[in-house]
Amino acid sequence: MSLTGSTSTVTLTDGTKAFRKSLPGAPEGFFQFEAAGLQALGALGARVPQVYEVTEEQLIISHVEAKDGSAAIEHPEYVFGQELAQLHLTAQQTADPAQTFGSLEGLDHWFLGGAAVDLQPTETLHETLVTNRIIPLTEQAIESSQLDASALQMAQAIIPEHLGPQEPPTVVHGDLWAGNRMVDQSGASWLIDPSCHWGHREQDIAMMQLFGGFGPAVMDGYNAVFPLTAGWQERIPTFQLVPLLVHVLLFGSGYSDPTMRSLRATVNHHP
């Protein structure tokens, strides 16, 4: 999910091949947010492009050579699941006990794809996910006539118990659809284009289920390292609400029905 910009391969002064993303007139903090996310994920052990330069209108990162579609390389799904679980586990275990949900430190402009979202720090998952994102995004979608007015009542009916057992916050990629996981020529997985923040790990799991592209071995690998709590499958519609609402706002009413289904599935589920 992104604003319309341009990408190109560039050569740095030392001869290094790099990847440039540019967007003239980009929203304030747009590329800084992405750069901070890449750096946070990398610090936790994820394989991410190196950030070379970031300005208000461009981001230059290291070039990752994606797997050739004709290459006989099996996607290491199980290993990727293990790596994602280790990332979530490491962030959770090494965080300050007083770590709040929401923004990475030092950021005050936040995005999911091309949409601005509210990631101001909060004490609870419900506040950051439901109060600050699901309800306001639902209101925006209703105001733009993309969602039926009944959506707001359902959004307001989401309670902390719908989000599952309490867990400490962890760093999530935040936009982990299949297009934001690259596989290089060696078969290793890389994470790109994050909407990185302190959240709940089931946000990443749910996003991975939204558009497909991840085999069942990913979840096997994940659960071998950091097992998900009981009922995670029933919570997938709930944790898909933010990306679905953003899709409604960015791409129109074609995403309205899936969003309404996820809202109904959430409020009809009795945790």
UniProtKB/TrEMBL annotation:
Classification via Pfam families: Fructosamin_kin
The entry's keywords: Kinase, Transferase
GO terms assigned for molecular function: kinase activity
Family per similarity comment: Belongs to the fructosamine kinase family.
Entry protein name: Fructosamine kinase family protein
Source organism of the structure: Yaniella flava
